[in-house]
Amino acid sequence: MAASSTSSLSGSSVSSDPDDYQPPIWKSYLYQLQQEAPRPKRITCPQEMESRPKYYGREFHGIISREYADELLAGKEGAYLIRESQRQPGTHTLALSFGHQTLNYRLFYDGKHFVGEKRFESVHDLVTDALITLYIETKAAEYIAKMTTNPIYEHLGYTSLLKDKMVHRLSRGRTEPRRVTFQSDDRISSPVVRRSALKDTPEKLSSYEKIHNFKVHTFRGPHWCEYCANFMWGLIAQGVRCSDCGLNVHKQCSKLVPSDCQPDLRRIKKVYSCDLTTLVKAHNTTRPMVVDMCIREIELRGMKSEGLYRVSGFSEHIEDVRLAFDRDGEKADISASAYADINIIAGALKLYLRDLPIPVITFDLYSKFIQSAKLPNAESRLEAIHEGLLQLPPAHYETLRYMMAHLKRVTTFEKYNLMNAENLGIVFGPTLMQPPEQNALTTLNDMRQQKLVVQLMIEHEDVLF
Asked: How confident is the model at residue 226 (pLDDT cuts 50, 70, 90)?
């Protein structure tokens, strides 16, 4: 390819302030190729076909041979027709002239027309998109293979700048996990007091990384990839867009984008059932607002409530709290004047944790925690649980740490609320950890271990976190 086919990035400027960021000069070569691609030419049937399906037009020729279709399309680049298969009546083939040959595709219809993953409102749009794709991938195969080798995403560093600002903001209020070594001490009989015999070891600083939530997207009008700066070709489904931050890239480029999604609050439609890391990054907080606000309200007026977290509030009122958070966010009113029964607030907190798409103790670590609880030696159990905690994503770790500190304080009011660490473990075990396969039998078999994991985290909160 000629070197002049892409425009230079030298005109781009990088400011230390992301608000002053100027986008690069987009590379125009693939856009030019799309403009040059052959246009569709419908070859119509001269006679009315009674067998023609209602969703096809005059391009339908009925049952004709492949050879006759070749004759009709010969020498007409971009010409197309639809024929019914001779071997399999009732099935249809799109015959398309491209590159001085006829290409045949099995054609389907389920309300939209398709030959592959993309679905189109009309056969004309399908052929238009096919010709663009065929032309670009034929003319620029080598260029496309190399277009990710010098991405503007890394070159300009504007996302890294945003990420650094976010990490700095979060790290000011976050407690980093600390790696500890559990040692037996014959002079110390209480495991909780044993923290004086623990050794702190340095733990690698971790940031709130989040992968992008890419979904196939159809762009209206010309769009360029924000990773490689190349044009995203085609009529529909030209690339993918992150539904959390809005980043637009080619599908092949999405595999190379770093895990540095910075969710945009305008794209986060709700609080409940939203990924935990996505929510805290969107709101620039260390923990979900639901956790902070509900715990604050419970510690203000509910610590002596008998059966706290065990007694259920009215489900209709709990649903009202959920809707309030989804609608108003941190401005949601959960005060005593709005909800006098503290069990409603406790129920709303449990519902939030239970409805997370990825539980606080993540699916991939579930079996590690369950196996930890099965270890016969008390020291080994704590060591294994601690190792599991260090592998949690930072937002999950911080949320769990805050929850366990709160539940530890709940147990100090046991003579009033009748909730000790074991009782709270029964309540929060299946709430904080769920098996990845969502199997009822597995959950039933693991209930004892789920309870024990949470019980131990509450009892040894000051050691484990």
From this structure: confident
